Amino acid sequence: MPAQPEGDAAPADGLLPPSVLPGAQDRRLSLYVHVPFCSVRCGYCDFNTYTAQELGPGVSQEAYAADAETELRFARSVLVDSGLPHRPLHTVFFGGGTPTRLPAEDLVSILGTARDQFGLAPGAEVTTEANPDSVTAQDLRVLADGGFTRVSFGMQSAVPHVLAALDRTHDPRNVGRVVEWAKEAGLSVSVDLIYGTPGESLADWDRSVREALSYEPDHVSAYSLIVEDGTRMAAQMRRGELPGIDPDDQADKYELAESVLAEAGFEWYEISNWSREAHGRSAVENRSAHNLAYWHNQDWWGVGPGAHSHVGGVRWWNRKHPVPYTNAVRAGRSPAVGREALDEETRLFERIMLETRTADGLPVDALPAERRSEVAGLVAEGLVDGRAAVGGRVVLTLRGRLLGDAVVRRLV
């Protein structure tokens, strides 16, 4: 797993500086709950996750809900004592790890504490990630009855040998079953896919996309495989046991996904995400509101080991391992290990980097005055949509999405 960011020491009381106050009333507040448990660690994964055998003394999955709820109460007191206005939660997202390694009743209990401490905005989106083999129909009914509105299933692939290369343990035949259970419970459904796995052919990827569409989800995410140093897959590549990542292969697979998803009525709204009109909701309404909160740099509090938070240009991150995290929370101290206040230059860079990823795009006038002339060149090169640019926004073309990092470098 990667090292944590460098930054200033985080205060034990968690209080935030006065710089977070201007404009707070106009910013939405979201909640991320990190559940750091998995049954096995996938070879490509560098997320902050732990199997039961890796947990230290005094830490258990059974006690996790109580610890997360303690941090939620701490979060509420920090925001109040820092002078921030009360804001109900616009979105709540349970990620991991595998959140559904916890009993559904525990997830509902954590959500209940969040509701008690902050309230939920009307129509708030409440999502949990889930592996296809980690939930039952009853679990999904409990989640829906407890206030969850959405579930995101980690399908990754429909092809057994690709799943094996990723160390995914679920049976691909389970995906259709759990999607149907989720719909019967009244939950919106997203399906997550990964492309570019060593040994995955273009035909394999086409099969995975089409099989995901056969389940009729509201939303699809498709992420290129990124292999980070320190993972088992990175070591296998270094030893020559697996081929390396081929950017041209990933580009071909992205273009295939865009073509097949568009043909099925899905609209891209962020480089890796598509939604469609379904179940009485428009494609815009079926977008992930929680992810949009990140891309539009709203405020969020991250609960759990290693979780990151952001409020008004101040960012902080919790202790990674569950043992020191748990010790801090139970002692009434902030579990944060470091934080940073972003300067204006960094905030502008991040805004350009994030908003250009979205179909709504970035206002041209948000760019530094000396960089606005670059937009015309990017249009001429087919990287930015000309009609959107005339309307005052930087929106990537399909080719621009494939070269998004290069576009950002030009704009900053």
UniProtKB/TrEMBL annotation:
The keyword 4Fe-4S applies. The keyword 4Fe-4S applies. CDD domains: Radical_SAM (cd01335). It is found in: Cytoplasm. Keywords: 4Fe-4S, Chaperone, Cytoplasm, Heme, Iron, Iron-sulfur, Metal-binding, S-adenosyl-L-methionine. Pfam families: Radical_SAM. GO terms for molecular function: 4 iron, 4 sulfur cluster binding; coproporphyrinogen oxidase activity; metal ion binding. Residues 23-267 form the Radical SAM core domain. One of its GO terms (cellular component) is cytoplasm. GO terms for biological process: porphyrin-containing compound biosynthetic process. PANTHER family: COPROPORPHYRINIGEN III OXIDASE, RADICAL S-ADENOSYL METHIONINE DOMAIN-CONTAINING PROTEIN 1, MITOCHONDRIAL. Probably acts as a heme chaperone, transferring heme to an unknown acceptor. Binds one molecule of heme per monomer, possibly covalently. Binds 1 [4Fe-4S] cluster. The cluster is coordinated with 3 cysteines and an exchangeable S-adenosyl-L-methionine. Belongs to the anaerobic coproporphyrinogen-III oxidase family. HemW subfamily. This is Heme chaperone HemW.
